[in-house]
């Protein structure tokens, strides 16, 4: 891989252990890592100007459903609460093909890249018409994104008292067998890995206690992480109390779903005891503020979780419940919601950006990313602060207060994914055309 020198950077927000803010600095990228940070560095390789730019680690997305990019702003789901929203969309998702999931993931990953994201997880929990997890894994390879796919699952359909239609659920033995298959085939635990697989039964209302327990046992045996939805809204809490006789935190703990190898999406309704449980066990949270607003779920206790030292990252959630996938906008929304709830001093722009970078890396078990430091992977976002969005800003590094919504350049493992604001790894017009054809077909079937 050729050496790249990013030189004359106005401001670099490192998110390193000292949380250094560097000015007039260069970054040397070599063999997928940050090889040197200094001033007046030289190179025989490519030079990228950082003049007029703020440079950050690549942003980390801890929760998404990439397949949903084909079902944004669906009438009948636009103004529904979570359970009603799902009931509207399940029949449409039943018609998805492997090609649909692949092209949806490609576009969703491209959208994330434009917002500065270099590493994303994805929660794929339905597999209609022969779809498989590799439909998304191949898409991540096409775009060049560092990827943490999760083998999700639903096993309790309507006929058994669950929420999803029977056509979208799977046999639990088959689920576990496929979890073993995808981990054995695709999981790479090495430092700098471009693909790590996690296990992710969808939610307490769509799988059995036995599958939750067995997935946890399997994950520990395989050395992979665990992910699911938890405590998303009031309906979620009511379901847990009615069906399991306990709150979601207790349910998770009883089944082995706490620990540094576990992260839960949403957690809007965690109470003080559950926050303490997550802090003591180092259980991670994927905070999805835009989706929580979109579905009226509430404001997650992010300030309380951070103060208790719960590991927290950000997630855009599915594009059908956001309905966008901009991680930099998600960071701004996280900051603003905490200020709405607790005052203007509740969260700074810098803390929210730290959650979007180093925080997400910690949640996903990736200490090799999320920082600008020598030896860390070369996942780097370069933000042009000479344009309209930053004009007049006295602090260009306060990107979440006044800054661009899209990156100028994005590097993943030292490879340029976004170059001068355009996708460098795929034909974007052709991708958009294929994506729209898939959307039109699904609309005609609905």
UniProtKB/TrEMBL annotation:
This is Hydroxydechloroatrazine ethylaminohydrolase. It comes from Phaeobacter piscinae. Belongs to the metallo-dependent hydrolases superfamily. ATZ/TRZ family. Keywords: Hydrolase. The keyword Hydrolase applies. PANTHER family: AMIDOHYDROLASE-RELATED DOMAIN-CONTAINING PROTEIN (PTHR43794:SF11), AMINOHYDROLASE SSNA-RELATED (PTHR43794). The keyword Lipid metabolism does not apply. Residues 54-416 form the Amidohydrolase-related domain. It holds the Pfam family Amidohydro_1. SUPFAM superfamilies: Composite domain of metallo-dependent hydrolases, Metallo-dependent hydrolases.
